[in-house]
């Protein structure tokens, strides 16, 4: 169904809140994470930095429950429409990973943290 033969086996997955439509994050999927997402109903991705399968919320508890999946015309990008448990998709504590806006040449924080990453991840 998806064209994993493109881009070295990794496809972009745009994650949106299923109610508001807010873009929460962008991650990548491979065939394994796609199959796990379909079988469990929870968003799974491929971590490029750790080179391993990743259940979103595995550490934080901020799991993403799949409500709908959209596939683009080239079958090489997906949108996961999710219910974001815990109120935050971003590992930095914000509801969305897109919590900064470019203003002129500067980045301005426009979001408010939902949680303290030091407390959640105990690093």
Secondary-structure blueprint:
Layout: E1 11-17, E2 23-29, H1 31-40, E3 44-47, E4 52-55, E5 64-71, E6 78-84, E7 100-103, E8 106-109, H2 117-121
Parallel strand pairs: 1-6
Antiparallel strand pairs: 1-2, 3-4, 5-6, 7-8
Instruction: State the strand order across the main sheet.
Output: 2-1-6-5
Shape: globular
Order of helices and strands: EEHEEEEEEH
Beta strands, count: 8
Helix content: 10-25%
Question: Which structural class is indicated by helix and strand composition?
Answer: mainly beta
Q: Per DSSP, what share of the residues sits in E-state strands of 2 or more residues? A: 35-45%
Q: Kindly provide the name of the CATH class.
A: Alpha Beta
Count of domain modules: 1
Report the C-alpha radius of gyration, rounded. 15 Å
N-to-C terminal Cα separation, in Å?
39 Å
Largest sheet: 4 strands, mixed
Say what the CATH topology is: Ubiquitin-like (UB roll)
Mean pLDDT: 96
Low-confidence stretches: none
Number of helices: 2
CATH architectural arrangement: Roll
Give the CATH superfamily.
Phosphoribosyl-AMP cyclohydrolase
Record keyword descriptors for this entry:
mainly beta, Ubiquitin-like (UB roll), 4-stranded mixed β-sheet, 37% strand, globular
Overview of the structural elements:
By secondary structure, the protein is mainly beta. The protein has a single domain (7-121), classed as Ubiquitin-like (UB roll) (Roll). 12% of the residues lie in helices and 37% in strands. It contains two helices and eight strands; from the N terminus they run E-E-H-E-E-E-E-E-E-H. The chain has helices spanning 31-40, 117-121; strands at residues 11-17, 23-29, 44-47, 52-55, 64-71, 78-84, 100-103, 106-109. The strands form three sheets. Strands 2-1-6-5 form a four-stranded mixed sheet. The protein has a two-stranded antiparallel ribbon with strand order 3-4. A two-stranded antiparallel sheet has the order 7-8. Strand 7 (100-103) and strand 8 (106-109) form a beta hairpin. The chain is globular.
């Amino acid at each position: 169904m998806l064209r994993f033969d493109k881009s070295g086996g990794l496809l972009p997955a745009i994650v949106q809140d299923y109610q508001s439509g807010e873009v929460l994050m962008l991650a990548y999927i491979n065939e394994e994470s796609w199959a796990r997402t379909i079988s469990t109903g929870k968003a799974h991705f491929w971590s490029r930095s750790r080179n391993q399968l990743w259940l979103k919320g595995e550490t934080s508890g901020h799991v993403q429950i799949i409500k709908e999946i959209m596939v683009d015309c080239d079958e090489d990008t997906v949108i996961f429409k999710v219910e974001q448990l815990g109120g935050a998709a971003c590992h930095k504590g914000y509801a969305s990973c897109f919590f900064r806006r470019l203003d002129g040449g500067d980045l301005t924080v426009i979001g408010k943290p939902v949680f303290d990453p030091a407390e959640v991840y105990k690093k």
